[in-house]
Design brief:
- One of its GO terms (cellular component) is peroxisomal matrix.
- It is found in: Peroxisome matrix.
- One of its GO terms (biological process) is D-amino acid catabolic process.
- Its cofactor is FAD.
- β1, α1 and β2 form a beta-alpha-beta unit.
- Helices cover 21% and strands 27% of the residues.
- It is globular and about 65 Å long.
- The protein has a single domain, classed as D-Amino Acid Oxidase, Chain A, domain 2 (2-Layer Sandwich), CATH 3.30.9.10.
Length: 363
């Protein structure tokens, strides 16, 4: 008998989990979601992400393991599937010790360590000599990362799932258990994989009060700074951030950002946008022609996304709700892409436990 599986949610976590599960022909998978790739809605975080690989998990934690285990998959896709919309990009990370106690500084704490765990994971890691740093920078490093064009990558995941027989349907549920009756076979699902992100705060049968939004605001421009750049914090506010990356296959350059906890505002803040652009030009003056300020930026759009942050970290565990077997995989904050395969592999292993059948989780 096949495993009838419902994956609830079509963000990067749901799609990656469905992708791995779909490698096993014994799995019959239905992805049910309110929002699908191509949608731009404040409830749907994945399209707004940069997205890239800048590890922030504390060494020895599950988060660390998930990010470590995701790099090989992203590297393989980048090398073998150019149509997926991922490319390698040189990354430069700067650290100022004075940022350590800010919200942004705590978010980036592991990333900006002088001797981080990921130095043995990413290619070409090297510390930047102090002589090459600005006086206000305490340390810096360079390595090869990836940047993902989410507008291409999310549909690519849908395509890979569909090729393997996965069925996609739009749906909205008041209670998670109701999803078990919406499997495309017409029969009740054996397990629901809950990848609803921030919506798990309101979904009946889950209602996770540990979830909160961490509002991110970006400006997408046509200008190209060259390398990906990140900084441990800013002088404009303890929950504002400075990062930039150029998306693959013409996706534009993302200028960020902010990390505003408990802020649900869906509308871009014009003053914050101006600060984001000024910070970007200050650290990467090559963005614009000499002598130009923010008027030299060719803006594509402004964007706001709500990172699904969860106190205590993501929830990747098995559960049972109203007699229905459930595997949760949500609450990844601002690192959904760079932990996507590690978390999905953990979720697949839990599906194996609850169904008693071993899926083949591979690319």
């Amino acid at each position: 008998m096949p495993n009838r599986i419902v994956v609830l949610g079509a963000g990067v976590s749901g799609l990656t989990t469905a992708y791995l599960l779909s490698q096993d022909p014994n799995n019959e998978i239905t992805v049910l979601a309110k929002h699908m790739p191509g949608d731009y809605d404040i409830e749907y975080a994945s399209p707004w992400a940069g997205a890239n690989y800048l590890p922030v998990g504390k060494e020895g934690s599950n988060h660390h393991a998930w990010e470590r285990d995701t790099w090989p998959a992203l590297k393989e896709i980048t090398e073998k599937y150019p149509e997926a919309g991922i490319h390698f990009q040189d990354a430069i990370i700067y650290n100022r010790k004075k940022d350590q106690e800010t919200a942004t500084g705590q978010w980036f704490a592991e990333l900006v360590q002088p001797n981080p765990w990921y130095k043995d994971v990413v290619p070409d890691f090297r510390n930047i000599p102090q002589s090459e740093l600005r006086p206000e920078m305490d340390n810096g490093q360079r390595f090869t990362s990836v940047c993902i064009n989410t507008a291409v990558y999310l549909p690519w995941l849908v395509g890979q799932c569909t090729k393997n027989g996965t069925v996609f349907k739009r749906a909205v549920f008041e209670h998670i258990a109701d999803a078990a009756n919406a499997h495309h076979s017409g029969r009740k699902a054996d397990v629901i994989v809950n990848c609803t992100g921030l919506s798990s705060k309101f979904l009946g049968g889950v209602r996770d009060e540990k979830l909160l939004p961490a509002r991110g605001q970006i400006v997408v421009v046509r200008n190209d700074p060259g390398p990906m750049i990140g900084l441990s914090g800013t002088d404009d506010g303890e929950d504002e951030a400075l990062y930039m990356m150029t998306r693959a296959v013409g996706g534009g350059t993302i200028l960020g950002g902010s990390y505003q906890k408990h802020n649900w505002d869906a509308l871009p803040d014009a003053n914050l946008a101006n600060r984001i652009m000024k910070r970007a030009i200050d650290i990467a003056p090559q963005l614009v022609k000499e002598g130009q300020g923010i008027e030299g930026l060719d803006i594509i759009r402004h964007g706001v996304g709500l990172r699904p942050l969860r106190e205590g970290g993501p929830r990747v565990e098995k559960d049972e709700v109203a007699g229905i077997k459930v595997v949760h995989n949500y609450g990844h904050g601002g690192f959904g892409y760079q932990a996507s395969f590690g978390c999905a592999q953990s979720a697949v292993a839990l599906v194996e436990e609850v169904t008693g059948k071993k899926p083949r989780a591979k690319l």
